[in-house]
Amino acid sequence: MPTARNPILPGFHPDPSLCRVGDDYYLATSTFEWWPGVRIHHSRDLVHWRLAARPLAATSQLDLRGNPDSGGIWAPCLSHAHGRFWLVYTDVKHLTGAFKDTHNYVVTAERIEGPWSAPAYLSSPGFDPSFFHDDDGRTWMVCMRWDHRPGRNRFNGILLQEFDRAAGRLIGEPRMIFAGTALGCTEGPHLYRRDGWYWLAVAEGGTGCNHAVTVARSRTIDGPYEPDPAGPMLTSRDAWHLALQKSGHASLVDTPDGTWFAAHLCARPDRPFGRCMLGRETALQRLVWPAGSWPRLAQGGNQPAETVEVPLPAHPWPAEPAHLAFDGPVLPDCFDSLRDPIDPSWCSLTERPGWLRLRGRESPHSRFRQSLIARRIQHHACTVECEIDAEPRDFQQMAGLMAFYDCDLWFYARITHDETLGRVVGLAWSEHGGYGEGTPMAIPEGRPVRLRFSIADGVLRFAAAVGDGPWRDLGEGIDAGRLSDENSGPGGWNFTGAWAALAAHDLSGRRMPADIAWFAYRPGA
Fold first, then answer.
1. Bridge partner residues of 107 (DSSP)
2. 234-235 and 245-254 as β-strands: parallel, antiparallel, unpaired?
3. CATH class of the 323-523 domain in this structure
4. Is 285 strand, coil or helix?
5. pLDDT along the chain (525 residues), means of 10
């Protein structure tokens, strides 16, 4: 029997929504400020996954420019009914302080690959919308409601409202159906119908170390919903020995033979009580769900298992190559861009055939038009390398390789220009918006430069080499845990994990070209 080893989607893949259509399983995850919006993976066995769709990939569907760090696309919900896929999601425009601007939309497609429709606006009371298609043909949306008033429970409860498919909008008045439990931070709702009950699965406890999955049920769709008297179905709280921390925010699915599974959010610190550089990931748990009774983890208790047996025929996909050349017509699927859609005006595979050309634009702190593409860091030990050809003419021009968390938190091995030394390579960094630079190293003009960073035993190290010459360290080792959710944003409130990024910046407005010959990501020290 195939075995799923958690996480099934390593690296930044949070808020999973799992949907089955026949023998095919589709899993949507949040993308926040990264473009395109929402990633949908496909599996035949719940063990092996491949990227199948990026549904929010048109400027007419999504504008992330100016969105805050860890804003953008939150908690998509994917479902299939009435001959179509339905994807609902939140675009978060503001998230700090008392207020949140959280706009909920729906897009649809007949096929998972698309084309996906233009978004239809739904509402903005809170985040984490989810569609439920009832047996009577009606469609409903549930989402959490945010309360900005002082002294109130900010996570105000779960709202229910009917969606008119023909009109493409919500109808009737929203109804509060569940206030949550004492765990608090009630969010991420998903509705199911089984054995004469409506079942409501919610995330509670906050998306950190107290995260949990609570299940409640009702005989009628509008409640009242009674929470499971046994407490959370799934949690890692108070279990620091577990490899899978922050377990919560689950979506349930059944196989054709009636076996139930939960896809859920988790995170892996690099050591006990450590920080989660890889961000929030997706794991899988097998359930037992006797008729009319509460769902339980198959292994007993409510703590996540690292390995799960799956009674489906194995169906692996081809592995992603470690070494990527830029000799094709499109970028490899592993790359996303930061807020701004990839466009030939700043990211071209044709201007210099066989190379990727980035044209420098706004600064590494910009939340609008950075020339930056990145892939998720998915392992606690890995090596990332590239070869880059750039000839900056002043200090405002730079290009290179970044270990990137968000616009205020990054480390940047970049080629730039120094008035005394000429062309140089060196390390720059930003932490909580504070900027610093290491000692630059002079390098000859007219020759490509290899850049590298490695992570091993919790230490991040950068190096550079000119042409085929030897590697030379750029500064000292850095605590890799600094590139983590726990070290980001106000109070460790950000959500996106660490990335390996290729970037070009030109503050002079001259759009300096930087050409990359290849990029490599290798797991292991």
1. 87
2. unpaired
3. mainly beta
4. strand
5. 95 98 98 98 98 97 97 98 98 95 98 98 98 98 98 97 98 98 98 98 96 98 97 96 97 97 97 91 98 96 98 95 95 97 97 97 98 98 98 98 98 98 98 95 97 97 97 97 92 88 98 98 92
CA triple 147-152-155, angle to 5 deg = 50
Distances (CA, A) of 309 to 42, 245, 479: 19, 20, 36
DSSP 418-479: ETTTEEEEEEEEEETTEEEE---EE--TTS-EEEEEEEETTEEEEEEEETTS--EE-SS-EE
Domain 3-309 sits in CATH at 2.115.10.20
Q: Helix, strand, or coil here: 487?
A: helix
Chain centre distance of CA 133: 26
Spatial CA neighbour of 349 closest among 324, 328, 374: 328
- Please provide residue 133's backbone torsions phi and psi, each rounded to the nearest 5 degrees: -105, 110
- Residue spans of the domains in the chain: they are 3-309, 323-523
Does 290 sit behind a cis peptide bond, omega within 30 degrees of 0 on the bond before it?
Answer: no
Residue type, 3: T
Catalytic residues: 15, 187
C-alpha–C-alpha distance, residues 518 and 389, integer Å: 11
User: How high is the pLDDT of residue 519?
Assistant: 98
Burial 48-87 (b: 16+ CB within 10 A, else e): bbeebbbbbbeeebbebbebbbbbbbbbbbbbbbeeebbb
Report whether the peptide linkage leading into residue 2 is cis, meaning its omega lies within 30 degrees of zero: no
Q: What is the C-alpha to C-alpha distance for residues 228 and 215, in angstroms, rounded to an integer?
A: 6
Reduced to 3 DSSP states, what percent helix, strand and coil does the chain have, rounded to the nearest 5?
Answer: 0, 50, 50
Q: Is 480 helix (H, G, I), strand (E, B) or coil?
A: helix
* Calculated CA dihedral for residues 299, 302, 305, 308, nearest 10 degrees: 50
b or e along 388-418 (b: 16 or more beta carbons within 10 Å of the residue's beta carbon)?
bbbebeeebbbbbbbbbbbbbbbbbbbbbbe
Instruction: Let me know: does 525 contact 366? Beta carbons within 8 Å.
Output: no
- Assess contact for 70 and 496: CB atoms under 8 A: yes
Q: What is the full DSSP assignment across 336-391?
A: EEESSPP-TTTEESTTTTTSEEEE-BS-TT-SS--EEEEEE---SSEEEEEEEEE-
Token pair 């290849």 is found at 518
- 3-class SS of residue 486: helix
Q: Burial level of 155, CB count in 10 A (0-12/13-18/19+)?
A: buried
Under 8 Å between Cβ of 265 and 280:
yes
**The token pair that represents 142 in the structure block:** 């549930």
